[in-house]
Specification:
Immunoglobulin-like; elongated; single chain; alpha+beta; four-stranded antiparallel β-sheet; 44% helix
C-alpha cells in the first residue's frame, strides 16, 4: 500500500486536496484591519507618502515660464514639462523613459525586493492615507473590529457616513488634480466654481475619483494580491542575494508565550513570543513567520512591531528583519554581482543617452508634403514647377523669423508669400511653396532636393528636409 493510501486509511476524514484548493480559491474575502505601528520604517513610509502626494497635488499648481510646470495639453498636442515643450513627434522620448523606468524597477527589485510596492506604489500611498483617515474617524483596530461585528446603530451609521464622506471628498479632489494635468488647473478651478465644467473633464474627475475610492478604500490589499501582475513575476528577479523581509526561524522557534523575566531556553522556547502582532500590522494579512510569500509588499511594518516586542522582552532586535537568503543560511551576501552590474551599465547608458538626446533636440522641425494632385506642371516661361506644403513647427518658447532656401538642382527658384516667415513660439504654421527649375537640368524623372529653414536671429537654429522634385526628362 502506498504512503498516501495508508495516510488516508489512518485519517478517513482527511479532506481531498483538490476540494481544499477549490475552497481556498473561492473563499469569501475577509477584511484586513491593519494595526497602527510606529518605528523607523513606518516613519520612512510616512515620509514617502508626504513627499509623493505633495508632489502630485503641488506640481499641478506650480507655474513655469508662463505655463503650468507639467501640463499635457492634448487638444494643442503640446506637453510642457518644467520648461521643455514636447510634441507628438517626440513620443519616442516617452517610450525611452518608460524603458528606463521598467529597468529601474527590475534593478531595485533585484537589490531590495518589493521596495517599490512597500513605499512608493500609488496603491500603497493612497491606501496609507485612507487608513489614516479611517483610524482618525473610526478609532483603533480593535474599535473598528468591535463596531463592525455589532449591528447598525445611529452612532455607527454617523461614524461610517463621516468616513465615507471624507474618503469620497478626498477621492474627488484627487480626480480633480489628475484632470488638472491635462486642463490647466487654475482654469479648471474657475470652471468648477462656476459649475461650467465640460463633459470630458467631469467624466474623468469622477472616474479617477471613483477608482481611487474603490482601490484605496475597498479593495486595498486585493489589488496587490490579485490584480497587480508585478506580484506574480517578481520572483523571476529574486536571487539568494536579494534583500527581503524574513523571519529568523532558527532563533524564533519553537514559539510560545512566556513572562518577561523568564529565560526562554529553560522553557525550551525560541525568542518568538507568539504575540501575532506581526500579522496584525500586515496590510495584506499574511504571517511572515510562514516564510517569504508573494503577497508580502515589503513595507516592513512587521519589522517595526517585532523590534518593539523584542525591546520589551529584553531580547536583541532582528527576529524579523531585512536580510538575504544567503545571510539566513550563514553565507556571505553580495551586492555587486553579474545581475546588478548588467542593470547598472544598461541604466547608465540609457539615462545618459536620454539626457543627451533631449539636450541636443532641435526646437525646430520642418515637414515637407508634396502636392499629390499633380506630378508637375509647366509655367508660361517654360519652367517645370512642383508645389509643396511645408509645416513649420517652432518648439521654442519664443517667436523666431525664418528664411527658407532650397538646393539640390542648379537654378532652383522658390516662390512663397513672404521671404521671411514668422512663427510664434510653440506654434505650427503651414506654408504653400512652389519650386521651379529649367527642364534642361533635369536628368531623371524623380530628383532629390533639400529645403532648409534657418532662423534669422539665430543661425544655429535650422532644419533641413529632403523632398522629391518630379519633371520630364530632357533628351
Amino acid at each position: 500500500m502506498s504512503s498516501e493510501s495508508s495516510s488516508n486509511a489512518v485519517n478517513p476524514h482527511r479532506p481531498d486536496p483538490v476540494d481544499t484548493a477549490a475552497e481556498e480559491a473561492y473563499a469569501s474575502h475577509k477584511k484586513v484591519y491593519p494595526r497602527e505601528v510606529h518605528g523607523i520604517f513606518a516613519n520612512l513610509r510616512t515620509l514617502g507618502v508626504i513627499v509623493l502626494l505633495g508632489l502630485f497635488y503641488g506640481i499641478a499648481w506650480l507655474p513655469w515660464n508662463g505655463h503650468q510646470a507639467v501640463l499635457l495639453d492634448l487638444p494643442a498636442r503640446k506637453f510642457y514639462v518644467f520648461g521643455l515643450t514636447f510634441w507628438p513627434q517626440d513620443f519616442f522620448y516617452f517610450a525611452w523613459l518608460l524603458v528606463i523606468a521598467a529597468l529601474t524597477l527590475f534593478y531595485v527589485t533585484s537589490l531590495a525586493g518589493r521596495l517599490w510596492c512597500g513605499y512608493a506604489c500609488p496603491q500603497t500611498v493612497w491606501t496609507e492615507i485612507f487608513l489614516w483617515i479611517e483610524r482618525k474617524i473610526e478609532g483603533s483596530r480593535n474599535q473598528q473590529m468591535k463596531r463592525d461585528k455589532g449591528g447598525m446603530t445611529l452612532t455607527k451609521f454617523r461614524i461610517k457616513a463621516t468616513k465615507h464622506f471624507v474618503w469620497i471628498s478626498f477621492s474627488l479632489f484627487t480626480g480633480f488634480t489628475f484632470v488638472g494635468y491635462f486642463t490647466p488647473i487654475r482654469h479648471l478651478t474657475t470652471e468648477a466654481m462656476a459649475f461650467n465644467l465640460g463633459p470630458w473633464e467631469t467624466f474623468w474627475i469622477f472616474f479617477y475619483g471613483f477608482a481611487t475610492y474603490g482601490n484605496a478604500g475597498w479593495l486595498r490589499e486585493q489589488v496587490c494580491i490579485y490584480m497587480c501582475p508585478y506580484a506574480r513575476f517578481q520572483s523571476a528577479m529574486f536571487d539568494r542575494d536579494t534583500l527581503v523581509i524574513a523571519y529568523d526561524e532558527k532563533r524564533g522557534e519553537p514559539r510560545g508565550s512566556r513572562r518577561k523575566n523568564v529565560d526562554p531556553a529553560r522553557l525550551g522556547l525560541g525568542d518568538c513570543v507568539d504575540c501575532t502582532l506581526c500579522v496584525q500590522v500586515c496590510p495584506t494579512g499574511i504571517d511572515i513567520r510562514d516564510g517569504l510569500q508573494y503577497q508580502c509588499i515589503g513595507c516592513a511594518a512587521c519589522i517595526d512591531v517585532c523590534d518593539q516586542v523584542m525591546d520589551k522582552m529584553g531580547y536583541s532586535k532582528g527576529l524579523v528583519r531585512y536580510t538575504t537568503e544567503n545571510a539566513m543560511n550563514g553565507k556571505p551576501s553580495h551586492i555587486i554581482r553579474p545581475r546588478t552590474i548588467m542593470y547598472t551599465l544598461i541604466l547608465l547608458v540609457l539615462s545618459l543617452g536620454l539626457v543627451y538626446a533631449i539636450s541636443q533636440r532641435s526646437p525646430l522641425q520642418l515637414d515637407v508634403l508634396r502636392d499629390r494632385n499633380s506630378l508637375y506642371r509647366e509655367t508660361p516661361q517654360g519652367l517645370v514647377e512642383n508645389v509643396y506644403t511645408l509645416k513649420l513647427i517652432n518648439m521654442d518658447d519664443r517667436s523666431h523669423p525664418f528664411k527658407l532656401s532650397v538646393s539640390g538642382l542648379k537654378g532652383l527658384q522658390i516662390s512663397m508669400e513672404s521671404p521671411v516667415i514668422k512663427v510664434p513660439g510653440g506654434e505650427v504654421r503651414s506654408l504653400p511653396v512652389s519650386v521651379r527649375v529649367d527642364p534642361v537640368v533635369l536628368k531623371r524623372t524623380a530628383n532629390t532636393i533639400e529645403f532648409t529653414l534657418q532662423a534669422v536671429d539665430d543661425p544655429a537654429l535650422s532644419s533641413t528636409e529632403t523632398a522629391r522634385f518630379l519633371g520630364p526628362v530632357t533628351r
